[in-house]
Predict the 3D structure of the following.
Amino acid sequence: MSDIIVVEGLVKKYGDKAAVDRLDLRVTKGKMFGFLGPNGAGKTTTVRVISTLTDFSEGKVWVGGYDIAKKPREAKKLMGVIQQHISLDKDLTVRENMMHHAMMHKIPPGDRKKRIEELSLYVGLDGYMDRMIDSLSGGWKKRAAIVCSLIHEPEILFLDEPTVGLDIQARRLLWDLIRKLNDGGTTIFLTSHYIEEIEALCDNVGIIDNGRLIAMGTPSDLCNKIGSTAVEYHGKDGRTVYRYFPSRGEANDFAATLDETNTVLIRNTSLEDCFVELTGKKVEEK
Ligand SMILES: Nc1ncnc2c1ncn2[C@@H]1O[C@H](COP(=O)(O)OP(=O)(O)O)[C@@H](O)[C@H]1O
Ligand SMILES: [Mg+2]
């Protein structure tokens, strides 16, 4: 399996502060990579560096084999980015925004209309093409942004916190679309601070905290790292204690030693357990 994104020792500083601190990452071609971390962890900065939207202080980044410091233009052609704060023009219609992107990406004039129509149909936006961007709800705006980002047919799509601010139904619909894009062969780099989103979508996960990579692997790799079986118990003081074990047998043996006044639950370890255990905090915490 080939790695379409390779990041080694990446540092991005703002003044003295490293927003990204000696980060190593690998994203496998065709997979869905989830970059999980709390607010301020460095997710957006990482996406902006890899996608050549901003420079970096130290390290190396290759995209599709191109060193982005030496061949930014070649690398950029392989990537589409949907930033957290959508950068569509509010004063234009959906179609006009798409045309604008097609021109920016130098899509030959004869191909523009067809490509826009095909992509809009694909994401279900075909009935909304003459609406002003600002008249659309968050989910449909995201879809318009997705079409704009796919217009040059990139191999990799970055989605930075794509479902923040969407209601549950719009979020589920967007998940389906992201899965469809990935099934069609597009490598997805998704950032989120929602554990359930990463759990629902991603083949591989990187956990970032304070600019540093805490762990990387499949969700089950990460659970095995801390122990695949969790024992959760709380006693009279109301405090819940979590312990992790490599097997059910060991978890059962431990549970048998607990005082019978404790309420005990034995279950599979979740990605949330991994996050809390590895970073020492809850993901929604700042
Ligand atoms: N343009 C900037 N100038 C100064 N500091 C920044 C800038 N952008 C981000 N930071 C800081 O870098 C850190 C990482 O931010 P960011 O990458 O946006 O995190 P995330 O996307 O995970 O919430 C934060 O401490 C943030 O305040
Ligand atoms: Mg961010």
The pocket of adenosine-5'-diphosphate (ligand 1) is lined by residues 14, 19, 37, 39-45 (CB under 6 Å). The chain has two domains: 3-217, 228-268. The first strand starts at residue 3 and ends at 14.
